[in-house]
Amino acid sequence: MASKSMAFFQVLISSIFLLVFPRCSCEVYDDVAKLKQCRFNAIYNFGASLSDTGNQIIEIPQVWSTKLPYGQTIHKVTGRSSDGLLIIDYIAKSAGLPLLEPYLKYQNATSFLSHGVNFAVGGSTVLSTKFLAEKNISNDHVKSPLHVQLEWLDKYLQGYCHDAKDCQEKLASSLFTTFAGGNDYGTAFSQNKTLEEVKNSLVPECVETLKHVVKKFIHHGARRVLVHGLPPSGCAPLFLTKFSSNNSAAYDGFGCLKSYNDLYNYHNDRLKEAIEELKKEYPHVDIVYGDLYKAMQWIMDNSRQLGFKSVTKACCGPKSEYNFIDNFHKMCGAPNIPVCEKPKQYVYWDSGHWTQNANKHLAKWLIRDIFPKFHCKQV
User: Fold this and answer.
1) Domains annotated on the chain, with CATH
2) How many Å apart are CA 34 and CA 53, to the nearest integer?
3) What residues act catalytically?
4) Shortest CA distance to 315 belongs to which of 78, 115, 73?
5) Is the pLDDT assigned to residue 16 strictly greater than 60?
């Protein structure tokens, strides 16, 4: 009788535990090699710091990501804006390809990397410096916005391909990816542009430019394109510090700024519409939306089960509410700036970039989501 009572008690406790701590669908680890089934022979990536693997530190050697603690988890400073690897690295790993090298490291090489190249540059924008200036937004510090990265692609292909037909054949099995858009809006907000101004004057142009970029990829021969949307930047330490509000209604249940997240969601909705238009125009091409917003939401919804202690505070930064102060000499990487003991317990590494652990989980969610949309055959 006692053993039956004990068994009943254990079942009861287990049931209560599951009610209080529901299981998350976190079993994405079996998907780590899924993209290998797509048989991509190369990856060509474009964008900014969320996927830059070393171009910015070649262009601007004085940025803080040129030194530790950046790269501390992989014991190597590479120019990645993280303590370790990025989402694009995990995508490459999943595809069974080497990690992407930065274009500027090999721009004058006589031999060309056959497994792909990373053209992304930290800080870059989708829109040109000239266009932003016309909107009274200064962006002079950015040397390589997206149109420059496309020029690099043209130069690379001139050496990699014998002719246009050869390019079409070589690129047909490649994956083209973009991680872009956030810096256009962040720069505008930092120069006192309102949410409404950004929504009306920048979002349509940004989405249209990304649409043009995809067409350029297809013109060169791309048959599989992954276009990432924007994450909920209203959760980033930089946004939470610079645009804080005394109105509690401005924040959601995670402590993120709702109005900024709404703007980034608006961008994503317009981008998804543009992708649907492109699919109709190019039915022979797989154009897939990478839902960084939902991936990030999944992490925040399941942060405790995934082992995260903080979802809005930076691991690396001066001690403050979000461990960020808007001062170049007080940023992560500057002398005497503290770093948390366990980066894997933080979603954010610095003011706006994720830790390796967060990147790993984001990548695994994304890979599971995008894999069936590329119609890859099981092997």
Assistant:
1) 30-234+257-306+356-374 (3.40.50.1110)
2) 22
3) 49, 350, 353
4) 73
5) no
